Amino acid sequence: MSNKPIIGITMGDPASIGPEIAIKALLDENIYAICRPLLVGDAAVFNQIIEKLGLKAQINVVSEVQAAQFKFGEPDVLDLQNVNLAQLTFGEISAMAGNASFEAVKKVIDLALAGEIDATVTGPINKKSINEAGHHFAGHTEIYAHYTGTRKYAMLLVEENMKVIHVSTHVSLRQACDLVKQERILEVVDLLHLGMQQLGETNLKIGIAGLNPHAGDSGLFGTEDDAEILPAVQEALRRGYDVEGPVPADTMFAKAATGYYGGVVAMYHDQGHIPFKLSGFKWNAQKKQMDSVKGVNITMGLPIIRTSVDHGTAFEIAGKGVASPDAMVLAIESAVQLARNKVPQPAPVSE
Predict the structure, then answer these.
(1) Nearby residues of 183 by Cβ (< 8 Å), 6 or more positions away
(2) Alpha-carbon gap, residue 318 to 45, rounded angstroms
(3) Which of 294, 309, 334, 306 has its CA nearest to residue 159?
(4) What are the pLDDT digits (tens) for 47-77?
(5) What is the DSSP letter of 344?
(6) Per-domain residue ranges for the chain?
(7) What's residue 349's pLDDT?
(8) Which CATH code for domain 154-300?
(9) Is the peptide bond between 303 and the residue preceding it cis, with omega within 30 degrees of 0?
(10) What's the gap between Cα 73 and its chain centre?
C-alpha cells in the first residue's frame, strides 16, 4: 500500500457536480488498486451528496493525511469545515461556495509542496464564485502558478490521441494574438515533450498550429506565422525535437485525431479546446445531457503534479445524480502515471 502514490482530490465547487463525481470516482475499486486517494473539502458536503443520491459509501473524516485509511467503500475526507449547508443551493453562484472550493485547492497545493501527497487532482470550480469570495484568479492554472511561484507553465489537455498544449489560455482573443512569440512557443514545446514522455507516449512527433487561416498563406492573412511561429519551429528542429509547422489548424487537428502527432501546440484557448472537446465530449440530444465527458487537464511546468477534469461545474445537473465521473477517473489515472514518471522540475521562483 505504501508504494502507491497519495493523490489529493479537491471537491470543486460544492454547489456543482464536483463532490458527486469525486465520490463516484472513488466507488471504482480500480482507483484504490493504483493509488491512495484523499478527498479534500467539506465532509458535510460529501455526506449530503452520498445521502441524496443513495451512494454506497461511508466517508472517513480526517484532519491530517497521516490519519487516512485508504479503504475502498470508506473514502477519506480531509475536512476543511468551510461550508454551511443551510446556505448552500445546488447550481447557485455564491461567495461561500467559491471560498470553499478555493480553500480546497490551496490546501492540496500546500500538501503537495510539503511532500505529504504525491499529486493533486482538482474538481470543477466556478470562476465567478471564487472572485466573489475575493480570490481574483482566472482559473486553477493561475492559482497553482501563483502559489508555487511558477512563471513558465502551460495547459495540456489529454484524451486518447489528442494531447494539446496552449501558448495562451485565459486572455482575450486580441491579447492572445500578441502573445504568439517565438520564445513562448519554444517553452510550450519543451513542456509538451516532457508531458508526452511522462504520460508514456511513444510517438513524440509534435504538430505546431498556425495562428491565422491557412497559417497566414505567406503573409496574405497575417504575419505572425512567418515572423514568430516558423522561426520557433526551425529552432525546435535545431534542438532535436521532431516538430512540424506552422500547420493550418484545421488540417493539424484532423491529423492529430488519427494519432499522426503525439501532441500538438495550439496558439490560443479555443483553437485547442474546440477540437479537443469534440473528441471527448458526447452529447445525447434525446436525453439533453452528456453521455460521456472525457478529457484531462494537466498543468505543465509546476514543481508539483496537477491534473483536472476538463469540464465545468455543470450547475444545471448538480445534485441530480446524472453526472459522469469518467473525466475524474481519467484525471486520477493520469496523476498516478505522472507521479510514477515524475521528472524533477525547476525550483519555484521566489516573489
Answers:
(1) none
(2) 13
(3) 294
(4) 999 999 999 999 999 999 999 999 999 999 9
(5) P
(6) 1-151+303-346, 154-300
(7) 43
(8) 3.40.718.10
(9) no
(10) 26
Total residue count of the chain as it appears in this document: 351
Give 3's DSSP letter: T
At 246-304, the pLDDT tens digits run 999 999 999 999 999 999 999 999 999 999 888 766 666 776 665 666 678 999 999 99
Q: Which three cell numbers stand for residue 74?
A: 470508506
Secondary structure letter of residue 74 according to DSSP? B
| Residues 153-177: tens digit of each pLDDT | 999 999 888 999 999 988 999 999 9
Q: What is the pLDDT of residues 139-148, one digit of tens each?
A: 898 999 999 9
Task: Tell me whether the CATH fold assigned to 1-151+303-346 matches the one assigned to 154-300.
Answer: yes
The whole-angstrom separation of Cα 272 and Cα 287 is 28
Round to whole Å and give the CA distance between 7 and 199.
16
Which contiguous run of DSSP H or E holds residue 108? helix 95-113
> To which residue does cell 472517513 refer?
60
User: Per CATH, which fold does 1-151+303-346 belong to?
Assistant: Isopropylmalate Dehydrogenase (3.40.718)
Closest CA to 108 of 120, 92, 126: 120
β-pairing verdict for 60-62 and 263-266: unpaired
